[in-house]
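User: Could you walk me through two proteins back to back? I'd like the raw sequence and the structure tokens for each, with a short line separating them so I can tell where one ends and the next begins.

Assistant: Of course. Protein one, sequence then structure:
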Amino acid sequence: MFRALCIALSLSLAPALATAQGAGDARSNWHLLARATVSGSAEAQTEEEYTVYSGLALEAAVARRLGELFALELSVRTESREVDGPAVDGTPRLGSLQVFPANLTLQWRPRAGGEAVFQPYAGAGLNLTAVWEKSGALDSTDSPANLGPVGQLGSVFRLSSGMVLSVDIKWNPLDIEIEGLADPVPKIEVDPLTLGIGLGFVF
């Protein structure tokens, strides 16, 4: 699913990339961003209490301007989330989940066409979150990938002609199912609010 998403994005951006390489006035259409992020935690609404704790991560993103008012951004990160639940061998700590969230958003950037220092944006799109590694009592379990909508707010602040400061907030619905751990299957509603800040290069 994620591979198909990347292929679709690559095909959609290929003509724009060729244009950017062939025309000097298109160099400022691309942003390459790196952000430090923190994502919120939540508890399951089940008879047995499960908690997925906050995740810290580094996020990489690439954005491409689409005209004067819009941009397309793809962002990815990996983060580790500790999980608590009913005690196993005397401890409630069940282990950790290594998750891979990927977001593809279409952004509205009302001030991106000028030389303004403060350039806010609002975006919406798709989030795909996959669990790619587990530890502890979760090692033998399975957690299906989650696909859903994502909302985004933020801004870039121009530091120079080639560098920006990025402040970003995303929210998406996220249910983590842990198959093979208990019956009925725990379904943990995380719905993380992700805050990110970092630097980016314009080219």
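----
Protein two, same layout:
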Amino acid sequence: MRVSSALALPVAVVRSISPYLLASAAAGAIAIMAPVHATIVPIPVPVAVPVHQVVTRTIAMPIPLAITMPPRCDDTYVGTWVASTYRTEFADWHRYTMHLRCRGDQLVGTLDLEQWRAGPSATQVPACADGGPDENGEYIVARVSERDGVLRVDAVTATPRLLSACSIETGYSLDHFAGKLDGHGGLDMLNNDEAGNAHDRPYHFHRIDR
């Protein structure tokens, strides 16, 4: 059998290289046992830095006074007032019955609205085929105020109270009346509604009772 040349070295040769092998092994052992100088990365330490809160300064603002004041409850405006107008562009009538009353020291108001379609000469409500009135209406709660002799009646809420049996209801938009006494017992007012159908539409109210 053939043997490898590395295993067939003479004994004298082996002995001659032994000191070199031992010296090499010792050097390796020293290298392994020597301390390794590694770079140490410091761990960041959190530092508490006080944060100053920014406080927004607020200034108390006065509440603005209303531009209108409730009129005194005397006979100047108290009573029931009626006014009618014909709208040519819609071929219909509007009749408002305005009730101004005292509630404590304040003047309050409500309006009854009747609306019907007819010609300009038909000042009375027409009838449906069944004999019922051909009109639609609203019950309106209003806020009343006065300034420099100008009375304002502003609708706040409205509830349908009349429904025609033969005509389609056209709906209602809140009214805003403003005007003055005419010096002859009447009240001339202009109406602007929130839908934009009425632009300073004139109404002459006359008082039918107190």
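The longest helix spans residues 11-33.

Let me know if you want the two compared in more detail.
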